[in-house]
Design a protein that fits this description.
The structure holds two protein chains of two kinds. Chain A is of the alpha+beta class. Chain A has 21 helices and 24 strands. The longest helix of chain A is centred in the middle third of the chain and has 29 residues, at about 260-285. By secondary structure, chain B is of the alpha/beta class. The chains are: A alpha+beta, B alpha/beta.
């Protein structure tokens, strides 16, 4: 498919025809190949400006030596290249671009007013940059060029075949060393990611990040220097207020060899992974010590691997991987051109608009479409995730920043494309005569989309966090009299039947008292018998005495019997350390353990009022899924008949673990010292756990209830957003 | 002021680049400002001032001729000091307002004197509305004044006052005839007011031009003025860069004495809408004809190849934008055909396809007597689409003209080479102060503001307009329309009332003429071919029983005076035979009837086969009965205008782009 958009002549030719321009003497030219085509990169080292010229364009520019006019050069190149020669409009384009990049000078000085305006425009842009700098500031700190030159020998050794072999061996060995301890690694990850990310650990984590990223940037710098590129700027930039090092290795863009460019792009990862590999050895070495060194090593490994996999090697975001892919595919400016080409495909085949720009080389086209189709949604997704993360993680005082960023990204990711599409549909002249069709198709598409997201019902899911607890449970208290444990009959975790003896204690004082009382009683009875015979007047008194003694004896005997502690209910005994209590004094009032009836184990979750409304609408056909922290990947399904929703709101949660302070999700009432009071009332959701497995009470669990009635995606999203807004408002 | 400083000023002034096109927020804000500026009621103030001027009449009337001249000289001295200049007033601060009041008072006095001079020299006593128009012009507005309200005199009043400042005022009219007529007509007034007047027409020679452009008031057509401006630019050559010019002047090379147009200061554009909007899309080009023989053979073979291609199969035609696209099949076929011809020049696909496409455009999109005509000498001349006028000196570029010459089997001329080029939009934006007059511009006020930053003032008519606008008649076929037109003409002709039939193209005027002749109706045809006599024919179109067929804008600027007894018959009847791409031009045609409170009648005849609908309402026109004739016309005109506006914007944008990207 050839494209005929190249008229030979231009109405404005007279403006450039008699100019005698030439490339600035300082400009450096290098050759690069893209998909078999030869291109030239012209670079002005002083201003670090680049411009890429096609072979034909370069042939033309090459003829401009300051003595030949543009017209003469055009005639010459036209004679040599015929159809491939740049046309007049193309020449004007080339000259204007070179002029804009400050790469040519001419015999006629440019119009002062235009120069002034250009200067103003640049100032304005600088102002905009400064504004952007407030959000993403870049602070250059160091010119590493001399440093890099000093380490030239080492640099050449690193980026060489032996260097590559050593790298492979070290990284391979590191992986081999870590794999046997995979489980431990995962455990540590869980601990770091899911549990308390304590302040110390967070600092350690950030330190690891800073170190590894500095090494990463050095990797770019060294690899760039290795192939002769100059590196003059290194410093700190702020990613979402988060300081990180950066390096300017853009001189690599003019490397003629694409593999060198790719290596510069990957240089960061090369260094980073090498250091991570060494850290892996240290981590394995110290893995049982639990020292901060171990944690630090672990952090470095984590940062290096996560950032490599999620960001750096991933070509869908504009990090190292993107530039490497762009060089690998030999499609410069991949993202922009993919977008342009893919959109032009839509325009051409759906809107039936003529091609409006030169098409890319055929072999590049599938790549472009594939890149556009994946990177767009992926970027949207990542942007959205970052937004959510920021919104949740920011302290409440600065949550306004999160909301601002959220709105900004909504506008950027959704608002701007919609605005541009509408503008295109209604004002673009290329749609002339095809506008109705294009609008109709677009409306159909939007209708389909709205139908899918706005009408097509999806299951509604309510998610809540809870804890495992038993419906029937009993604390086991020692006798009021207190005593020394003499025998322990049941162990921690053991199943016990109702009335089983758990602990036998002795209280010698009590025992002695009982013995004394018994003797007193015996004595009194003897006296009574003799009194009946001898002294009837004494009988009444003695009878009263005996009754009193019997009463005391009875109490003490009961207390004695209570020293044999039994469980009131059947179930599992939870009494850690009970075995070690023999010989110790049992403090009255302090439970020695608890018995849970496992057949009545439940998950108690707190749901907010909004979700409560959904849950109560048709409670019989819900489907509940519970995930326990210990076994996240095997959800337990619970029938709707085993799920109950409390109909009364509570201002307390069952377990303080459910509040945010303890890592839960519910906002606590900060004024309550017990930590169980919550800021907003909640409803309790109870789900009966099946008795087929053992669960530990107090465990944290996630409950997901799929509500019977379906709701469209749009509606669900709307409700979520409203909740979010209401929450932030009430906060 | 020293000469050199003046020269430097002039040079920089000539190279003034107006603010480039606004974008996004700036554009929106500017548009809103424009909305307000166009809505500010300015008439009451002008009306008050006009009353004040008229109140001075007894006093100035009592002056002797010498006394009048003396008074005028006094004001001239004030004007030279800039005390009459209101164009620099933003009218914002209090100080400015007092200055403004002082300037207004001086101006009122000035107009009273000029008015008296007009009475004495021309025998014309300007109406209040003309004074109001003149004041608005001095303030730099575009004024809308109904046709026949005396715009010529209004411009003369304003230009006299402006010329007192000592800087030339360019009064731009639509054709050479009007240039000469208006300059001569108003000469006594200018002379009495101490202002020199000159005019430049096509025939004016170089030497004379040097003098004319240095007169106080210069009547000139836009074409001549812009061409002279470009010639200056070419003459300056490498000196066109401001810095070099200054250096050159310091070395003692006087450029100004050789420059035809010594500077752009003030201008009054007559028919501002057509000048600044309709015609603005075509840039003016100065070109030379290279001496080398054109490659006739090349064009001939392209033409031959093009004729072998089949429409729809090998190529598609988009008549709206006059473009042809080769299909894949067409390209293959062309390759085969070229191979048969045997390589050479035709081996390269790009040049081959470009030339054949051009030949196809010539064959399919340009039609004899609609877009061009052939002179008796066998020259192809372009017909201006808006005016229906012959553009004698123009030619299509880059082979299209040659392709058409081949198509019509005429002698092939050589393609011209551009030496300099400027769009009218850009040219007129260079004036520090510009004003305009027109009969119809309200529809384009947005564009006037956006491009020229000129707000509009609508001057009321002196006497109320009693023109009758008869309901539009719509037909399903062109044939039915023409029949109905002839019927209607017969009907009116029986009463003896004069009829003016407006057509859109030369072809259409000949079609009407043919049918009128067949119906035995005596009539006169006025189209592009008879440019020279048009003013006379138009002037007589108001005589009893006269039937005149004219292309839309033929004879613009000339009044149609009603003959004896015509008023009793209902005045002039105007019949438009086809809606124009712009509603303004239809209104202008209708405006020929019912001038200055005369009776008159206007009616539109249209058919859905008309070009306007063919281009802009292909789909909707089928439902015209449902949509309604007027609504269909409005819809199609809105679309056409939209496209035209976009094109104009593109021209400006391209100009701006060039200025920004290659400011050499």
């Amino acid at each position: 498919m050839t494209l005929q958009l190249r008229p030979t002549f231009s109405e404005s030719w007279y403006r450039v025809q008699s100019l005698k321009p030439r490339l600035r003497p300082s400009a450096q030219v290098s050759r690069q190949h893209y998909r078999g085509e030869l291109w030239y990169v012209v670079r002005d080292p002083a201003a670090n400006q680049y411009h890429r010229l096609s072979d034909a364009a370069y042939q033309f520019v090459g003829l401009l030596d300051g003595t030949r006019t543009v017209g003469e050069a055009w005639e010459l190149v036209g004679g040599q290249l015929a159809d491939d020669a740049p046309t007049q409009p193309e020449v004007i384009q080339i000259l204007s671009q070179l002029y804009a990049a400050n790469l040519i000078e001419t015999n006629i000085p440019p119009d002062a007013t235009v120069l002034l305006r250009r200067h103003k425009k640049q100032q304005l842009q600088k102002g905009k940059q400064r504004l952007m700098n407030l959000l993403f500031p870049r602070i250059p700190l160091w010119d590493p060029d001399n440093f890099l030159k000093t380490w030239r020998v080492l640099n050449h050794a690193v980026f060489s075949l032996p260097g590559a072999i050593i790298w492979l061996i070290v990284v391979g060995l590191a992986i081999a060393a870590v794999v046997p301890h995979w489980q431990q690694l995962m455990d540590q990850s869980k601990k770091t990611l899911f549990f308390q990310l304590s302040i110390e650990n967070a600092l350690l984590m950030y330190l690891a990040f800073a170190v590894i990223k500095f090494i990463h940037e050095l990797g770019h710098a060294f690899s760039c220097r290795r192939f002769g590129g100059e590196v003059h700027e290194m410093g700190i930039m702020f990613l979402v207020l988060f300081p990180a090092p950066y390096v300017d290795a853009s001189s690599a863009w003019s490397f003629p060899n694409k593999w060198q460019r790719i290596l510069v792009g990957g240089g960061g990862m090369v260094f980073e992974l090498f250091v991570a590999a060494i850290c892996a050895f240290v981590w394995v070495w110290t893995k049982d010590s639990g020292s901060w060194l171990n944690t630090f090593m672990y952090n470095i490994m984590l940062v290096a691997s996560v950032s490599t996999v999620v960001f750096n090697i991933n070509p869908l975001l504009r990090y190292d991987g993107y530039y490497m892919l762009s060089d690998l595919l030999e499609i410069p400016n991949l993202q922009f051109r993919s977008r342009e080409y893919s959109l032009s495909l839509i325009k051409r085949f759906i809107f039936r608009v003529k091609w409006s720009q030169p098409l890319p080389t055929p072999s590049a086209r599938p790549w472009m479409v594939a890149f556009f189709a994946t990177s767009g949604p992926y970027r949207l997704f990542v942007g959205f995730m970052i937004m959510i993360l920021v919104l949740y993680q920011l302290p409440r005082e600065v949550q306004i920043i999160g909301i601002f960023m959220g709105v900004a990204s909504l506008v950027m990711f959704i608002g701007v494309p919609i605005f541009q599409s509408v503008k295109y549909l209604f004002t673009e002249p290329e749609l002339h005569r095809k506008r109705l069709r294009a609008i109709a198709i677009s409306l159909l598409f939007v209708a389909g989309l709205v139908g899918l997201t706005g009408i097509w019902g999806l299951p509604v899911r309510v998610r809540a966090q809870g804890v495992v607890d038993a419906g029937t449970k009993s604390l086991i208290y020692p006798a009021l009299a207190g005593g020394v444990v003499s025998e322990v009959r049941a162990g921690d975790g053991q199943m016990v039947a109702a009335g089983d003896v758990i602990v036998i204690a002795r209280n010698e004082e009590l025992e002695a008292r009982v013995v004394g009382l018994r003797a007193q009683l015996e004595g009194a009875r003897v006296q009574l018998r003799s009194a009946i015979a001898d002294d009837p007047a004494e009988v009444g008194r003695l009878r009263e005495q005996i009754a009193a003694i019997e009463k005391r004896l009875e109490t003490d005997e009961k207390s004695l019997a209570d020293l044999t502690i039994r469980t009131p209910i059947a179930g599992r005994l939870i009494a850690p350390g009970l075995k070690n209590t023999i010989g110790t004094w049992l403090q009255p009032g302090r439970p020695i353990g608890e018995v849970f009836d496992e057949s009545t184990l439940m998950v108690y979750a707190a749901v907010n009022q909004n979700d409560h409304g959904r849950l109560t609408r048709d409670p019989t056909s819900h489907e509940t899924e519970v995930r326990l922290l210990s076994d996240l990947f095997n959800p337990i399904t619970i029938a709707s008949s085993d799920t109950f929703v409390a109909s009364r709101a509570l201002s307390e949660v069952r377990n303080p673990a459910m509040t945010v302070t303890a890592g839960g999700e519910i906002a606590p009432d900060p004024s309550d010292p017990s930590g169980r009071k919550v800021a907003d009332t909640v409803f309790e959701l109870q789900a009966k756990l099946p008795s087929t497995a053992t669960y530990l009470p107090g465990q944290r669990a996630w409950v997901r209830v799929t509500v019977a009635d379906r709701q469209s995606l749009l509606m669900q999203g709307y409700i979520k957003v409203r909740q979010l807004i209401l929450q932030t408002q009430s906060n | 002021m020293s000469t050199i400083a003046n020269e430097i000023y002039t040079v920089f002034d000539a190279r003034r680049v107006k603010t480039p096109e606004l974008k996004n927020v700036d554009l929106a804000v500017n548009a809103i400002v424009g909305l307000f500026k166009n809505r500010i009621p300015r008439l009451p103030a002008y009306r008050r001032r006009a009353a004040r001027i008229e109140a001075m009449e007894p006093e100035v009337q009592s002056l002797s001729d010498a006394g009048l001249r003396e008074e005028i000289e006094k004001l001239k001295a004030e004007a030279k000091l800039g005390n009459l200049d209101t164009s620099s007033f933003a009218g914002k601060t209090r100080r400015r307002q007092t200055d403004r009041a002082a300037a207004d008072a001086l101006m009122n006095r000035g107009f009273a004197l000029i008015r008296e001079a007009s009475k004495r020299s021309l025998g014309k006593r300007p109406f209040a509305v003309q004074l109001m128009g003149a004041m608005a012009i001095v303030d730099g507005f575009v004024i809308e004044m109904a046709t026949g309200e005396g715009k010529t005199l209004t411009a003369a009043l304003a230009s006299t006052l402006l010329a007192w400042s000592g800087r030339p005022v360019h009064v731009i009219t639509v054709n050479d005839y009007l240039v000469a007529r208006d300059a001569e007509l108003n000469r006594p007034l200018f002379e009495m007011c101490g202002v020199t007047v000159g005019h430049v027409v096509h025939e004016t020679d170089q030497h004379e031009r040097l003098d004319m452009y240095r007169r106080g008031v210069v009547y000139v057509t836009s074409k001549e003025l812009v061409a002279d401006f470009l010639r200056d630019q070419i003459m300056m050559g490498a000196m066109r860069s401001s810095t070099q010019t200054v250096v050159g002047m310091m070395l003692g090379q006087s450029i100004r004495s050789r420059m035809l147009v010594p500077g752009l200061f003030r201008t009054i554009a007559d028919e501002a809408d057509s000048l600044l909007i309709d015609e603005a899309v075509t840039p003016l080009i100065i070109s030379n004809s290279p001496n080398d023989e054109p490659n006739t053979d090349r064009y001939r073979r392209a033409d031959a190849l093009a004729r072998k291609l089949v429409i729809h199969r090998d190529f598609t035609v988009d008549r709206t934008v006059r473009s042809v696209d080769l299909t894949e099949r067409g390209k293959e076929r062309l390759e085969e055909l070229a191979a048969e011809e045997g390589g050479g020049f035709w081996a390269g696909a790009r040049r081959r396809e470009e030339l054949v496409t051009q030949a196809l455009v010539a064959l399919n999109c340009f039609h004899l007597d609609e877009h061009y005509m052939i002179t008796p000498e066998g020259k192809i001349v372009i017909i201006d689409e808006f005016t229906g006028r012959v553009m004698a000196d123009r030619s299509w570029r880059h082979g299209l003209h040659q392709a058409i010459e081949i198509k019509e089997a005429q002698k092939v001329t050589s393609d011209k080479e551009n030496l300099a080029r400027i769009s009218f939009q850009k040219f007129f934006r260079q004036y520090p102060s510009m004003a305009g007059m027109t009969g119809t511009v309200w529809e384009s006020r947005g564009e006037m503001w956006q491009i020229y930053r000129r707000a509009l003032v609508r001057i009321p008519t002196n006497r109320p307009c009693i023109r009758k606008l008869l309901p539009t008649r719509m037909f399903s076929t062109g044939d039915a329309k023409w029949d109905a037109v002839v019927e209607r003409v017969k009907e009116i002709h029986k009463t003896g009332a004069p009829i003016l039939i407006g057509t859109r193209s030369v072809w259409a005027s000949e079609e009407v003429s043919k049918r009128l002749t067949a119906a035995g109706l005596v009539h006169r045809v006025l189209n592009a071919r008879q440019d020279a006599e048009e003013a006379n024919i138009i002037a007589e179109a108001g005589q009893l029983g006269r039937i005149t067929v004219a292309t839309n804008m033929a004879g613009r600027g000339t009044d149609i005076l009603l003959g004896r007894g015509v008023v009793e018959l209902g005045g002039l009847h105007v019949i438009a035979t086809e809606p124009h791409g712009s509603g303004r031009i239809d209104r202008q045609l209708f405006g020929r009837a019912g001038r200055q409170g005369d009776p008159g009648c206007a009616q539109m005849f249209a058919s859905i086969e008309d070009d306007l609908f063919n281009r802009n309402a292909r789909f909707v026109r089928r439902f015209w009965r449902f949509v309604g004739a007027n609504r269909l016309i409005r819809w199609a005109q809105w679309k056409a205008d939209h496209l035209a506006r976009f094109n104009r914007k593109q021209v400006l944008r391209a100009d701006d782009w060039m200025d920004q990207s290659l400011p050499f």
